[in-house]
Amino acid sequence: MGGRTGGEALAFWVTEPGAGEIRRSTLPRRRPDEVTVRTLRSGVSRGTESLVFAGRVPLSQHDAMRAPFQDGDFPGPVKYGYLNVGVVEDGPSRLLGRTVFCLHPHQTAYVVPATAVTVVPDDVPVARAVLAGVVETAVNALWDAGPLVGDRVAVVGAGAVGCSVARLLARIPGVTVTLVDVDPGRAPVATALGADFALPDRAEGGRDLVFHTSATSAGLQASLELLAAEGTVIELSWYGDAATSVSLGGAFHSGRLSVRASQVGTVSPARRTRRTTGDRLALALELLRDPAFDCLLTGESSFETLPDVMPRLVSRTLPALCHAVTYDTVEVPCSA
Question: pTM surpassing 0.90?
């Protein structure tokens, strides 16, 4: 795969809802403004990738939910994913040999514009760097919410995004943050992130802000009930084609409560004129110098096993916060 000669790689494709396979992919010849990257690790984004794998992307969202380097179309065959860390094996001298993060699907090697990769800081381990896209989502959510010193905040849903939000909040002076989840096994994770933990029926109300990440109607309802008067729920969940129901009786109107969507596809309006998506991703990687994020890395498997592993992740028979895919045993095929 030297010079600009192209080559071959292996990629994971969702062939149809609920099924996937490894396919051979031909790499294009690298242009001067591009890089060839060999993947070291990728990560499975449990929320969105589960919906994609299950074929639950609504027709109206097929364009909006395209990943930056997606091939194919929903519901399949489609090559999808966006948590990839690799090493630049060919490209401009300033990037050659550098470890980089890219919003690329699960693939052993790929060619992308040099502007599409972000250098991983030397003191951020490759395993932790996989979380960059998750932490970037959390950064955007905090920009949307604008938490203040001394705020009382809850995060409902202790998945990878919710936990990342909780960690960033815990670093703001005077902020008290409680991670709320139906799984009591998330309590040690909350402690490692510097947050309190509560089951939904034990969570204390009166919150200035609540971030909702559970992608359930029950979680959204609980989020509203935790708010103080004139408080706001920041909704990060994406429900795919699932119907969502919530009761807007009770204190919703008298308390002047708000629900605001946060979505990472564009930079938050609060920073859009002063930050680019590249700035946001670089910030996420800088924040990953924090070793507390290691508690989100809860499992790994080899790239070759992804067709068998993905159904288990989606069905939750294989529990994980962020599941890593390793590539060290993969032999990249050579072109004839």
Answer: yes
